[in-house]
Description:
Helix content: 40-55%
Shape: elongated
Radius of gyration: 18 Å
Number of strands: 4
Distance between the termini: 42 Å
Mean pLDDT: 90
Bound molecules: FE2/S2 (inorganic) cluster
Strand content: 5-15%
Order of helices and strands: HHHHEHHEEEH
Strand order of the largest sheet: 2-1-3-4
Amino acid sequence: MSLLPEELSKRLQAHAEYFPRREQAILLCLHEVQDYYGHIPAFALQEVARVLDLPLNHVENVVSFYDMFDRGEPARHRIRVCVSVVCNLMNSNKVLLALKELLGISLGETTKDRRFKLVGVQCIGACSEAPCFMVDEDTYKFQSKEKLHEVLSRYT
Ligand code: FES
């Protein structure tokens, strides 16, 4: 028995049956779930895995790989930090540490007031300026913890 509402479950099933191989429907199914809930809850991952006949960790890896998928509680603003090896060499860990300290949350978590969600991604398209971070669609170069605090205060 599906844990999802019937209409959503039927759409996932239709996507799975449309393609020659069920796993080819994975992105469509994940978009359906995210459109329905605003994010991708854990129980829905299990359902996507079941419908597509895939191991759960495969579905989890796909969701983690794509920045467009959000697994946790929704927030008013998303802060994205590149966690790639390349940017790590450019001290992106300093950005992450400063954000964690300022917000009191870890990657993938949302602040209690739902103001910010902290997301790790593989690239934010600012490689040459690293270390950088994004708040919603705005990109900033990390300068200091104080400057970071000032930037975040612009987002209510
Ligand atoms: S690899 Fe980190 S911003 Fe592109």
